[in-house]
Predict the structure.
Amino acid sequence: MIREVLSKCDDLVVVIGSAEESHTDVNPFTAGERYQMMISSLEPEERARIHIIPVRDVNRYAAWVTHVESYVPPFDVVFSRNGLTKSLFSQAGYEVRETKAYDMKRYSGTENRRRIAAGGKWRDLVPEPVASMIEGLDGRQRLVDAGAGPSKERGGARAC
Protein backbone atom coordinates (compact mmCIF):
# COMPACT_ATOMS: atom_id res chain seq x y z
CA MET A 1 0.00 0.00 0.00
CA ILE A 2 2.89 2.39 0.74
CA ARG A 3 4.22 2.01 -2.79
CA GLU A 4 0.74 2.63 -4.22
CA VAL A 5 0.39 5.89 -2.30
CA LEU A 6 3.97 6.97 -3.05
CA SER A 7 3.13 6.77 -6.75
CA LYS A 8 0.49 9.48 -6.16
CA CYS A 9 2.47 12.00 -4.07
CA ASP A 10 5.90 13.55 -3.63
CA ASP A 11 6.32 12.77 0.06
CA LEU A 12 4.37 10.53 2.39
CA VAL A 13 3.66 10.72 6.11
CA VAL A 14 2.84 7.32 7.60
CA VAL A 15 1.30 7.34 11.06
CA ILE A 16 1.98 4.44 13.40
CA GLY A 17 -1.20 4.45 15.44
CA SER A 18 -1.55 3.25 19.02
CA ALA A 19 2.14 4.02 19.46
CA GLU A 20 1.89 3.62 23.23
CA GLU A 21 0.81 -0.01 22.90
CA SER A 22 3.11 -3.01 22.69
CA HIS A 23 3.30 -6.58 23.92
CA THR A 24 -0.46 -7.04 23.43
CA ASP A 25 -2.25 -9.51 21.20
CA VAL A 26 -3.32 -6.64 18.90
CA ASN A 27 -0.06 -4.64 19.00
CA PRO A 28 2.67 -7.12 19.91
CA PHE A 29 5.51 -4.87 18.74
CA THR A 30 6.69 -1.50 19.98
CA ALA A 31 6.28 1.60 17.82
CA GLY A 32 10.04 1.50 17.23
CA GLU A 33 9.88 -2.11 16.08
CA ARG A 34 6.95 -1.33 13.78
CA TYR A 35 8.93 1.61 12.39
CA GLN A 36 11.91 -0.67 11.68
CA MET A 37 9.66 -3.22 9.98
CA MET A 38 8.30 -0.58 7.61
CA ILE A 39 11.68 0.98 6.85
CA SER A 40 13.35 -2.39 6.28
CA SER A 41 10.80 -3.20 3.57
CA LEU A 42 11.48 -0.07 1.50
CA GLU A 43 14.10 0.81 -1.08
CA PRO A 44 16.52 3.66 -0.20
CA GLU A 45 14.83 6.06 -2.65
CA GLU A 46 11.46 5.27 -1.09
CA ARG A 47 12.81 5.81 2.42
CA ALA A 48 13.94 9.29 1.43
CA ARG A 49 10.34 10.25 0.62
CA ILE A 50 8.66 8.85 3.72
CA HIS A 51 8.21 10.22 7.23
CA ILE A 52 7.06 7.52 9.64
CA ILE A 53 5.69 9.04 12.83
CA PRO A 54 4.38 7.22 15.89
CA VAL A 55 1.20 8.78 17.30
CA ARG A 56 -0.37 7.86 20.62
CA ASP A 57 -4.10 7.24 20.81
CA VAL A 58 -6.18 10.14 22.09
CA ASN A 59 -9.38 8.10 22.64
CA ARG A 60 -11.54 11.06 21.70
CA TYR A 61 -12.63 11.19 18.07
CA ALA A 62 -13.51 14.89 18.13
CA ALA A 63 -9.84 15.64 18.92
CA TRP A 64 -8.21 13.02 16.69
CA VAL A 65 -7.44 15.18 13.63
CA THR A 66 -5.96 18.00 15.71
CA HIS A 67 -3.98 15.42 17.67
CA VAL A 68 -2.49 13.93 14.49
CA GLU A 69 -1.77 17.40 13.10
CA SER A 70 0.26 18.19 16.23
CA TYR A 71 2.58 15.23 15.57
CA VAL A 72 3.17 15.34 11.82
CA PRO A 73 4.46 17.81 9.23
CA PRO A 74 1.82 19.62 7.15
CA PHE A 75 -0.11 17.43 4.71
CA ASP A 76 -2.79 17.95 2.08
CA VAL A 77 -4.30 14.54 1.37
CA VAL A 78 -5.25 11.60 3.59
CA PHE A 79 -5.18 8.07 2.17
CA SER A 80 -7.18 5.46 4.06
CA ARG A 81 -9.69 2.63 3.78
CA ASN A 82 -10.95 3.19 7.33
CA GLY A 83 -14.41 4.76 7.34
CA LEU A 84 -13.97 6.69 10.58
CA THR A 85 -10.57 8.07 9.53
CA LYS A 86 -11.97 9.15 6.18
CA SER A 87 -14.96 10.83 7.81
CA LEU A 88 -12.98 12.68 10.49
CA PHE A 89 -10.37 14.07 8.09
CA SER A 90 -12.96 14.95 5.45
CA GLN A 91 -14.99 16.88 8.04
CA ALA A 92 -11.78 18.72 8.97
CA GLY A 93 -11.45 19.89 5.36
CA TYR A 94 -8.83 17.47 4.07
CA GLU A 95 -8.98 15.78 0.69
CA VAL A 96 -9.46 12.08 1.42
CA ARG A 97 -8.68 9.30 -1.03
CA GLU A 98 -9.45 5.66 -0.55
CA THR A 99 -6.59 3.23 -1.06
CA LYS A 100 -6.87 0.15 -3.23
CA ALA A 101 -8.56 -2.86 -1.67
CA TYR A 102 -6.18 -5.73 -1.09
CA ASP A 103 -6.95 -9.35 -0.30
CA MET A 104 -7.74 -8.81 3.38
CA LYS A 105 -7.63 -12.53 4.12
CA ARG A 106 -4.04 -12.60 2.92
CA TYR A 107 -2.86 -9.15 3.99
CA SER A 108 -4.50 -8.83 7.38
CA GLY A 109 -2.52 -8.06 10.52
CA THR A 110 -5.10 -10.00 12.51
CA GLU A 111 -4.64 -13.07 10.29
CA ASN A 112 -0.84 -12.74 10.35
CA ARG A 113 -0.81 -12.55 14.17
CA ARG A 114 -3.17 -15.53 14.42
CA ARG A 115 -0.93 -17.63 12.19
CA ILE A 116 2.25 -16.59 13.99
CA ALA A 117 0.79 -17.37 17.43
CA ALA A 118 -0.55 -20.73 16.24
CA GLY A 119 2.76 -21.69 14.67
CA GLY A 120 1.16 -21.67 11.21
CA LYS A 121 2.47 -20.58 7.82
CA TRP A 122 2.90 -16.78 7.73
CA ARG A 123 6.33 -15.83 6.34
CA ASP A 124 5.03 -15.53 2.76
CA LEU A 125 2.51 -12.89 3.93
CA VAL A 126 5.14 -10.29 4.87
CA PRO A 127 8.34 -8.97 3.25
CA GLU A 128 11.44 -11.01 4.10
CA PRO A 129 13.05 -8.31 6.27
CA VAL A 130 9.87 -8.16 8.37
CA ALA A 131 9.74 -11.94 8.74
CA SER A 132 13.36 -11.95 9.93
CA MET A 133 12.64 -9.21 12.46
CA ILE A 134 9.57 -11.00 13.81
CA GLU A 135 11.58 -14.18 14.26
CA GLY A 136 14.49 -12.27 15.80
CA LEU A 137 12.11 -10.68 18.31
CA ASP A 138 10.55 -14.10 19.04
CA GLY A 139 7.23 -12.72 17.85
CA ARG A 140 5.43 -16.01 18.34
CA GLN A 141 6.31 -16.16 22.01
CA ARG A 142 5.48 -12.49 22.46
CA LEU A 143 2.01 -13.10 21.01
CA VAL A 144 1.48 -16.20 23.13
CA ASP A 145 2.59 -14.31 26.26
CA ALA A 146 0.08 -11.56 25.37
CA GLY A 147 -2.75 -14.10 25.24
CA ALA A 148 -2.95 -14.67 21.48
CA GLY A 149 -3.12 -18.10 19.92
CA PRO A 150 -5.14 -21.22 20.49
CA SER A 151 -7.20 -21.16 23.66
CA LYS A 152 -5.84 -23.39 26.39
CA GLU A 153 -7.95 -25.77 28.42
CA ARG A 154 -8.12 -24.63 32.03
CA GLY A 155 -7.79 -27.23 34.73
CA GLY A 156 -9.11 -27.25 38.26
CA ALA A 157 -12.53 -26.68 39.73
CA ARG A 158 -15.04 -24.18 38.39
CA ALA A 159 -17.54 -22.18 40.35
CA CYS A 160 -21.08 -22.27 39.03
In short: The radius of gyration is 18 Å. The chain has eight helices and four strands. The chain has two domains: 1-101, 103-145.
